[in-house]
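Internal ticket #5521
Category: modeling
Description: The requester needs a full-assembly model to guide mutagenesis choices. All entity lines are attached below as received. Residue total reported by intake: 586.
Assigned to: D.W.
Attached entities:
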Amino acid sequence: MTTVPIIQTQALTKRYGKGAPPALDNLTLAVNQGEIFGYLGPNGAGKSTTIRILMDLIRSTSGSATVFGLDAQAAALDIRQRVGFMPGDMSLWSGYTGRELVSYFSKLRGGDYSARVRDLSNRLDLDLSKRVREYSTGNKRKLGLVLALMHEPELLILDEPTSGLDPLVQQTFNELMREQRAAGRTVFLSSHVLSEVQAICDRVAILRGGQLKAVETVEKLTHTDFRWVTVTFNAPVSPSLVAGVSGVDDATVNGNALRVRLSGDFDPLLRAASASYIVNIHVAEPTLEEIFLAYYDNSADRKPQPALNHNHAH
Amino acid sequence: MNGVIFSETLRRGWRSALYWAIGIAVYAVYVLMIFGSDDATRAQMADLMATKLPGFMGAMFGIPDDVNFLMSNEGFLSFGYFTYISLLLSVWAVLAGLNITANDEESGVMNMLLAQPVPRWRVVAERLAAQLVLLAGILAGGVAGIMVATQLNPTVDIALGTAIAGNIGLWQVVGVVLAATTVLAALFKRRGTAAAVAGGFVAASFLLNTLGAAAGSSVGDALRNVSVFYHFDSADVLQNGLALGSVSVLVVAFLALSFGAVKLFERRDIGG
């Protein structure tokens, strides 16, 4: 495994116009070979801006970006030869058939990828004889995947790749990405669909307002310092039962069940709850979406830390 | 690979170019067969235009100063064919120029194209070259139409060389409008803005040429020099052949505008 990151950015900044706020603000990031790297953030976070700089579609205002150790702008042609790209806005010439597009892009790449294209289109259940104007949004994205994967690139850069794909095709997509990783190739994909990132990514970067908020393994992110605890009593209780208890937030009551968000130790919560008769306690780790929202919680400005993993304590 | 974008542009554009070529050929036959069908009709028209129309209007409609020349085959071809076709093909050139970068950029297809190992300059250069070939094909239709008219009507006597020379001059002028639209698309990014400014360029260029001719002063001549249409005097080309000075000006203008388009497109961000 090479020590040079496949993608590296240093203080990468992009402003669209003088005096405009940065769409990307001092981004420093490294993506290693053989990993599936998720790039998460809401619309306008700067995900597509980063990707477009890496593909030399736009130029940074300051900072640097390298792919395979090569400058993203100066060596753009060498990089594109080795990269498969799917943009977020999957626009293609409407009068072309899928096959014509594959043929055109194959010629531009100087290769014959017909066997691989056949395999990919079969797996994705894509009819290449249709014209682009006849394709649904999902089928256009399938075609985008075929075009990005056909030349077996060392690096895949995919902007919102599964948007519009049905669940079955998403499974195939996940398989394809895992195959890339197994072959030692690298995948850099942006998304705001947290479940897909959770399912396939090794590491995740979270971006907001053009700034990198965190880079973490998916495993670590899901072991954060808070969890959802549901305490079931033998009779209805009031949220005031746990008011002011250390580490307890967001208390809600549903019948006999009290659900709280707990940070830190269990003891203060259990001591307060034991004032009533406890029937059951259920502990759930936060989903990536909840972690994601926690990062975006301006008022709290929390940062998840590795923590104990408790499940289904009784 | 070299030439892939060029050949793909030809493949995508040949059918549309064929329709244009057929349309222009039919127009050439129509003009020469119907309007230029006999000497009496031409004499009547020449007299009408020479005596009844103000000079400005005559210049506007591309009517030569020399009434006797207007009565000739070449004169009638200059007035009836080249003046109008140059304007019509300027519209084609604006549309084709938008196809070089603006349309794909605005639709987002350019992102996919430039994700392939293709330098930006080649996208502009190969597409421009292909459009010039398509334009030559369209004008070949005009030459064919003129030649068909000479076969159908014995009073229309125009040499093949003369028809080709005139259409080469037209090819150059329209090529400059094509390159100007390309540079404007590279400058403004937005298709609508580029189309509007390019349309304004064509209209202003045509007006400068006609107003300058009508003014007839040294100021008028200076104004005409700025117009791309001034450098294609079809009446002169049909009588005396292509003028080296005008050919050079148009070639230099085309190359300079094309170079500018490439440089602008290479240096800026793609898309919105």
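Resolution: model delivered.
Comment from assignee: Chain A touches chain B at residues 16, 52, 55-59, 77-78, 80-81, 83, 85, 87, 89, 91-93, 95, 104-105, 107-110, 144, 147 (CB under 8 Å).
Ticket closed.
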